[in-house]
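#struct-help
A.M.: can someone run this one for me? Single chain, 253 residues.
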Amino acid sequence: MEDVTLIIQGKLYQDSYDFYIKNYTEFPVIISTWSDCIIDFSNIPNNFIVILAPLPLESGKQNINYQLVSTLNALKRVTTPLVIKIRGDEYYSNIESIYNQIKMEQDKIHTAPIFFRAWQFAEYHISDHIIAGTKERVMLMFKESKKNFDTGEMNISKWKLEGKFHRWITTEAPEERITKSYLNSIDPFRYDIIDGVILMKEHFDILDITKLFPYKIKANIWEAEWDNKEFIPEENYSISNMYQLGSDTPYIK
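D.P.: on it. Structure tokens below:
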């Protein structure tokens, strides 16, 4: 796995850090966090790089700018063709399964099923808990998302009631803004012209969460955590595979 880099971005928790340095010793790892981090890095393995950056003055809705900046800081240091991005307050096992999937399908972005929403619930809403693919594609996703955040573009979404369009709103979901920024950049002549479900199925895939146990998953907005317990996507308004994306009953497994 020397051709993949693991990016651990954002606020770093001690138990997550301890898990990383114990288990991720066979390939490059970049921790991209903030200068106020209190973790002791004196025992850091040789395959790790630590980036400590000042916290951006502007967080954005649901801290989207923090995610964009910390991820881009790391991507600039990546020298491998493949990359896997995870959060500093979470951890996952069997990273090899993610590596194997992106190795086989390098023309797609691979994400977790964690809050990957069905189309009728939220359009263009991937999961940003794990984002994996070629460095080129992941870099494009985050560069375009940062540009659009700075200019205020790609921040409008549909508010639906009972599955029907109600009105346009300014979206607070980073996942939607990241997805739309990427699709608009990777497929500009088809984005917002053809069915978005078709476009998402062409450019994204969903990882099997059961292969990544034991793990720690957090949902800060709901103050929820899954620690060594099974996260059932459909019980959390999430889909497990792309076939469910446009389904009439997406949350019935």
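A.M.: thanks! The CA atoms of residues 94 and 212 lie 5 Å apart.
D.P.: also worth noting: The chain has a mean pLDDT of 92.
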